[in-house]
Amino acid sequence: RGFLWNGFLFQYPIRPASMTYDDVTHLSAKIKPKQQKVELEMAIDTLNPNYCRSKGEQIALNVDGTCTDDTSTYSSKLMDKQTFCSSQAASNVSRYAAAVYKKGELHLTPLHGILQLRPSFTYLDKADAKHREREAANEGGDSSQDEAEDDVKQITVRFSRPETEQARQRRVQSYEFLQKRQAEEHWVHLHYYGLKDSRSEHERQYLFSQGHGLAENTELIKSPSEYLMMLMPPSIEEDNDKPMAPSNVLSMAQLRTLPLADQIKILMKNVKVMPFANLMSLMGSGTDSTAVLRCIQQVAMLVQGNWVVKSDVLYPKDTSSPHSGVPAEVLCRGRDFVMWKFTQDRWVVRKEVAAVTKLCPEDVKDFLEHMSVARINKGWEFMLPYDEDFVKKHPDIVQRQHMLWMGIQAKLEKVYNLLKEHLTPKKPEAQSAHPLLVSGEKRVNMAKAKVKQNYGQLEKDFQKQKAEMKSNDTSAKMDVSNIRIKEEPVSDEELMDTSAYEGMNNGILNGLHAEDSMDSLNGHLPGGCVDGVAQELKAFVSTTFKKQFVLTLSELKRLFNLHLASLPPGHTLFSGISDKMLQDMVLDTGCKQILVPFPPQTAASPDELKVYALWEAGDTYDQHRQVLLEIFSKNYRVRRNVIQNQLSQECGEDLNKQEVDRVLKDCCVSYGGMWYLKGTVQS
């Protein structure tokens, strides 16, 4: 099955039925000593009944072609030989030896290497090369014109740069360089001597020990256990052969061998959110809690009394999002915003986070899944309950974390231009209490009870305002007997929670009940109030569009309600403004409705589908904005390069980056590498 040569054991593969290892007249060998590489060429018995002659002829024809010369691999036009090439069978052979048993003695010879001989198929590469040459010759043609064209070739001259040390090391370690080095070493041809040859017998004597007494072999005068230990030392290779765990997985035993700071960092990076008590239970016995507190603050932030891993630990510098390619700095800001939202409330709405951070839905979902659980029709709830015990035991840590969150809040306010009222933190007392979890049915019942409680006061205010309007109409000598105000009783089956508007003009939205806020007067007002209301409404619309340029009807109504909330009681705008009046005023102030082609499966409301834009602002960018709005009247979303090319064509000038950014900032938002009109992005 093999042979021993110069301390190397050579093993043959399984022998085919037609292979003749014992046919010494047809065996040749060569070796590359430096590479410890051997090639043996053995004959194939072509007369064996198991040999397929047609296959042998076909292989020889594919390899050598029809011509026969000295370079032919198979001179007999038949595959009559097989080449075997050696490969390392084991990396550590110190435990192996070649043994010979003679006259009751066992003689061991240590091995320096074990090479296994495998069939070499380089003749197939030669056949492929000849096939490619024949194809190239057929395609090339024999015309003189082709030959003339082949003679004229363009030559590019390049001057090589001085090779740096790093480039040289990379070149030396490359596969091509190693292959070249191996090919440079010349083969040394070997001579074969038969089994009964005197030279073979002489070499075979080296397998027997020349000593004839145990006194000379002092290593063998040991106890059986020591001798066995010498004969079979502990294997290092077996340890390496054990299946390795993933690179990001550590056992608890391995983890506790690391420094305390590294232990905490690895745990927090994998768990993401953890109460302090659970963290201490994972630490080794006798670990100082003060040291753990000092280390945890370096890699995590306190949220709801629990520790959440910092964003820069999950998204190190010079990394990017696997979903959108957004750099780590932007991801850290977006995740910090989510963490900050959970310091204010137990619930976060994904759509709100996406609208503020302008990140792709996959990134936002990753942020939320790190620290919260999705609840159907409610939003995302922080995954752990409020840890009141930690807050009471460590007030100094809580205060320090609160100051850190104030600094993060200031940064978020600058980056995302958040409203002041949204940045007002909750009182510390609210955080020290247990969070109140209310079911959906309870919320509906509470809203109904609140509406019933406030209905009497709302009705009185409404009747009082109605009487004032009648007195104003009488003094102005106008007949308003035909004006009827729609009044619908509040039913027990369908009530609206008006708690959101309690602080807004005594529960009245736009001067009327919330149900009738935009349609109660069908777009008409008493004559004495028309001019004042129209002027105030026009001023609001004009000012708003000069700041925003593009607004959906839904967003405009929201801004209008905020504007009403800031006005003193009894203002003329409380007379009641319908949707029709608001839209007519938008068109009267020089705005136009942009018919954006929304996707067919859009989930936007009717008010969100109505998009209005200021057509002329009176500045130098009016023409550019008009071209941009025309683009979005035909496309729901557009790439930046398309916008820039269209602007250059329509305006007849090459705009620089600052000018294009100015126009895009006025009317559009970027989301996922595409540009949308403001308010039209569907997350």
UniProtKB/TrEMBL annotation:
One of its GO terms (cellular component) is RNA polymerase III complex. Residues 128-137 have a biased composition (Basic and acidic residues). Residues 426-683 form the DNA-directed RNA polymerase III subunit RPC5 C-terminal domain. One of its GO terms (biological process) is tRNA transcription by RNA polymerase III. Residues 128-151 are annotated as: Disordered. PANTHER family: DNA-DIRECTED RNA POLYMERASE III SUBUNIT RPC5, DNA-DIRECTED RNA POLYMERASES III 80 KDA POLYPEPTIDE RNA POLYMERASE III SUBUNIT 5. This is RPC5 polymerase. It comes from Rhynochetos jubatus. The lineage of its organism: Eukaryota, Metazoa, Chordata, Craniata, Vertebrata. The gene is Polr3e.
